[in-house]
Every structure is written in structure tokens, then in C-alpha cells.
Amino acid sequence: MGGVEEVEVGEECCEDDEDDVVDDYDEALDEGDELDEELCIENDDDLNEVNDDNYDESGEMGVGRNTTCMEDGDIGGPGDGDGVSTINADMYTTPTKRNKGPVLPTPSVGMSFANWEALNNYFRSYGEQQGFGVVCMGGNKSGVKDSETGKSNSLRTYVWRCECHGRPKYRRMVNGRVVTCAEEPILKRKTKKCSCPVMLYGARTKENLWVVKSVVTEHLNHIPTPTKSNHISMFRVRKITQTILKQIENDHDSGAHVAQIFNNLAGRRNGVENIGFTKKDVHNILNRRMRLRLRDGDAVAMINYLEKMTKDNQIFFHLHRLDKTGKLQDVMWVDARSRAAYEYFGDVVCFDSTYLTNKYELPFSNFVGVNHHGQTILLGCALVSHETAETFVWLFRAWLSCMGGKAPAAIMTDQDAAMRKAIRIAMPMPKTRHRWCMWHIMQKFSRKLGSMTDFPQIKVALQNVIYNSLTPVEFEEGWAEVVETFKLKEAKESYKWLVGISYMALSLREMWIPAYVKHIFWAGMQTTQRVESINSFFDGYLKKNTRLYQFAPRVFVERKF
């Protein structure tokens, strides 16, 4: 096999051991879901293309003498000749479907094929027939690259091997770098590498035909059988049709885990044994799809999705801004349903941005309202980079421009100084009355006054004054009585905080005490609990590792308000 020594071995298409498969797995797809123990073989999409023109209507392989082949431009072959050429009796083509048509003959020296793709498809189909996987090792290039017919024209020789070729490579981390161990470790990992010598070496002739120059068909250290092809990834993925692929993508976009998608497919086919592929294959499909989406970046993928939504519905509104380095800084969007609801129920709005600190560290903020049935409605969403006054001013102004400049009559937020400053700038009173969430303030009573010995009695007295006072005068008298009864002035730090939020500053009392804001319509709300209920709904579809391009689709698909 002198011709084999001339080959420049390229990058292998399969990985050495099980750990290399895990590198292809992205935890964002299905956190905590374990992979199967089988090996995943990555294939080049260009190498998996099947040319249906090489088969007759009966599905049989076109074999015969004095067979004429099509022009190179029609079949995408590597040749650069013109017209048609005559192929000898050993010309073979590859069937598209397994177990149909005649059995493929064993490869032998002298077989010729119309192009590289035909030879590649033949040896892969032969491997599927016998029960072993095929790896494209690489080859030599002629130096002349034809831009019209593709990369096959530039190849002069090529080598295919059994996927069990070579010895396993044991790798480990040393000082943060992956190194290959010279000796086998004590605990060996599962691998299919067993130094199998099966190979096929092909070369391109002057007539631009591909001829088998050398071949080894005897396997060593493993016994392939036809049924084993069902356990090889490159053959399993052929059973995933476009219909199944579309279903997998739709279920994943809806927020379903890979395990749920796979179990759903198995249920429709009366068992896992009737599917033909594994859960790991679904992982790899979604990983490949994710990598394609993220070629230009995660933020670009999200903006492209929002642009697509705008083209489908002109009422859909979104706006974003970039920082000085060109990276996505803030983005907000409002769909058609929210804009229509605001026209009728936009007099009271709750705004909350605590989803950042609750669980997932996602800077998610939303605008929430109440309809005429007392139901919570979503009026807008945003992803903000910083909770600063400048960021909130940009967000409020963008949201108001989306709503036609119509400011709400009242807005409720938590006790955040940056929000209060931004609302004064973007929604100046008396157009919009700002109120703090009662729940956030009452939670601070325990932190500020909890060290006092008679705190339980103080808390009950203060709550009675806050909630049961009907007029501002009644509140001031009751508040002074509580301070005098429990001698709160002696607790300097605690009394200083009480004075700061309620007694001295009239503007602060009007921000949260019911007696000062009861004449304003609040749709029955005293807290931002409705926003929290929406956040809890998102918990079912958003995870801590949810990417930006997944965020918006899941919000739109799953929202029910």
C-alpha cells in the first residue's frame, strides 16, 4: 500500500473516548440529564449528503458495463472535464436506503466511482450493511482549487477507516491544559478504539474518476454484525426525518427538556425500541442547532428574533441599545396583545425588577397591569444591564413611546431610589402618581426594630395605625401615640429610620401610607405581588442558564396573560 503513505492524515471525524462526547454536550439544553454511554460520532454535513440521482426507480444500485455518467457540473463530481465519459464495468453507485436493493459488494482494488461523494457514500453504506462506522481521515490536495464544483475537485487522494482504528488516547488536565497521557491510567475509560486495520484508500485519476487503490476488509479485536449499525450514531441520525426534526425543535423552543422530548417521541411510537435513535442523538441535534444560531453571538440571535417578530406583526415593538464596545446593553419589547390591553387598562401599572435578585440572576423587568376581571396582564418586558437611574430613564421613556406617550395615572414599584428618580424624570407628577410597595416596607420593620425586646407588640401597634387610619390626621396622632407608648425615641437608630420614612417628610408618607393615597385608584393593589406571580410563572420555563436567544421565544410562546 505504497499509495497510503502519501496521504496527509487530516482531522478525525470521531472522538477517541467517551469524554470527548461530553464536550459536545451543552448543559443549557437539559441540566442534570445524564447522557447515554454510547459514543457520538460527529459527521460533516457535506459528507452526509446523499445523491439520489445515482439510483434508478426500483431503488437498486446502477451497475453495468459501458455506463455513461453525467457531466461533473450535474453530479457535483471532482472532475474538471467536459461532456460525458464512459465508465468501466466496475463502476458502482450507492443506494439511498438500507435493506433495499441488492447487497453491496465487498470493496476491492480497481473499483471506480464517478466522484468523491459516490465513493464516500458507497463505503459508508457498506459499513452500515456490515455493522461498523466509517471515519473520514483526510487526504492530499492537488493544489488547484475549483471554486465552481466544490472541495471534491481539490482532493487527489483520500483515506477512510473503521471507527475502531488506532489506540485510545487517555487525556487529563494538567495546570489547566489538556494533555495526553503516555501510559494507560489505572481506571480505564470506556472506548471503542481497538487498533482495527480496516481502511480504504482512493485516488482521483486523470479522467476525474475515483478509483480504489488499496483496501483492508478484515476486522481485528471486534466483530461487526449488521444489527450493530443500529447502535452507531452516523446511521441512527438518518432515521430522524424532517417531520421528527421539526417536532423536536418546536418542543425545545417551548421549554421542554430533552428527556421530555424523547419520552414524548417514544410514547407516540409505542416504546423506545421503535424510535431508532437515542436521547443522546437529540442532544447532539439541538447542540448543533444552537451553535448555528450563535455563530454571530447570543445577543444578535435575540435581536434577529425580535426583528422577525416585528416583520410578522407591525404592532410588535422592541428597542435596544448598545454600549461603547458594541455589546448589547439593554433591550425592551412589547407585543401586540400588551399594547392593546394598555389602551383600556393602562391607568395603574406595577413595575418590578427584582427577578434579577430572586433566583436566576437574570436582569428581567416587567410592566404589569390589571384588567376588568381582576386578572393580571403583562404590559411589557425588558432586560436591563444595570439598575441605575439612567437605565430606568431610558426604559421608561422607551416604554412610554411604545404606548403613544400615554403615561399611567399611577405606578407602583419597590423602594428603590433609582426608580423614584427615573419616574420623576420620565413620568413627572401630577401625570403619574408614584407609590411604594407596602410589602417591601413592612419587611424592613423586622430588620430595623427586631432587636427591641417588645418588638411583637410594637409591630402590631404600628400595623394597626398604618392600615386602619382613615385620614392623615388620624395616622399622625396614632403614630405619635405608638412612639410615646413604647418609648421609641430612646432607640436612636430605630427611631431615626422611622422618622425618615414616615413622620418628618410628607413626601415620603404620601409614597406608601394608605391614608394619604386612598383617594387614588389603585385597582385594589397595595403591593407588587402580581408581578411576583408572573415571575413565578416564568420559573417554569426559564432557567439560570437560559440563553438570550431562548428567552424571548419562551416568553411569547408560553405566556397566558
UniProtKB/TrEMBL annotation:
Annotated spans, Disordered: 1-21
Annotated MULE transposase domain residues: 348-444
Any single Pfam family the record assigns to this protein: MULE
The protein's name in its UniProt record: Protein FAR-RED IMPAIRED RESPONSE 1
Organism: Spinacia oleracea (Spinach)
